[in-house]
């Protein structure tokens, strides 16, 4: 019970500061959002469309642009609403059809389509998709008008015949294949990759920077005063370890659940994801305790914590996926706990594995946690008893 009281006190002390709330909870979610919005993939591109009173042919053009689900069409009532939506990124591009579109194209007139896009890589691709859909309908309309001129039949009948002929004409199909093994799956969600990487980065970084709280406890002589009471040294050590673990676990669960609800991140097998999180929190707790028991200056501990936390995260694949590293660098990266954690999440999230598929990664993380916690307990016991 005393160990739990020590742990609870450590957690409460850390979360009393408002700056801690920001760095532990708000900053990770902001970075995951930023990384997903900037580099993420997997979501269907969104095209905003203004198509009010465009008639049957206008609606058919909108359906052709959607392409059977390749693009998501979002309806807007006016040009004034569509422009800001494109500018602020709510949709990737915009298209405005004139209100008299159906009547204009049936009479052989020229209907002007207004396309909007930001100057990024996706804009020209969406413009080509819209242009292809418009060109396909234009070809049918030209064939229908030719049929009307030659046979004198009605326009709707001629258009139906043109479409029947178009279906019978062999089309060109494009099949995309990947040589070798793809680095990332095509259906990977926008935030799925960055969420697991940032989870490991921030849990470990918060655990290391929490060493300053342990150093403050030593500097104020709190641990020594507890030893003067009927409290054993092992009780203090267990309490300090549980406190570090509690902080890491609270942050990890928040990131995991928060990204699941806010960004619909797929964490794979829940049992496997929970096991990786607990194992990595134990690693972070041991590393943070070891720093707090080794250094005498809080400034030194914070400097080393930031350098080690960010450096190990970069090498271990929490900033750039391990798959893009050369083979030799990937082998070296596995001296870090982040590499094993990222391997475990890659198996769960990208390859659909279960907890039975990450037993090696869990074993390495737990062994590393046991080593760090043992070293930290030995060093802290010497620091508070001498």
Strand content: under 5%
User: What is the 3D shape?
Assistant: elongated
Cα gyration radius (Å) = 30 Å
What is the N-to-C succession of helices and strands? HHEHEHEHEHHHHHHHHHHH
Task: Please tally the helical runs, counting DSSP H or I stretches of 4 or more residues.
Answer: 16
Model regions low in confidence, pLDDT < 50 over at least 5 residues: none
What proportion of the residues is helical, as a percent range?
Answer: 55-70%
Count of domains: 2
Q: Residue-averaged pLDDT, rounded?
A: 86
Structural class: mainly alpha
Strand count, sense and closure of the main sheet?
4 strands, mixed
- Strand arrangement within the widest β-sheet reads 2-1-3-4
Terminal residue distance: 26 Å
Strand runs, count: 4
Question: Can you put this structure into words, describing what you see?
Answer:
- With 386 residues, the chain is mainly alpha-helical.
- It has 16 helices and four strands.
- Helix 2 packs antiparallel against helix 8 and helix 12 runs antiparallel to helix 15.
- It is elongated, with a radius of gyration of 30 Å.
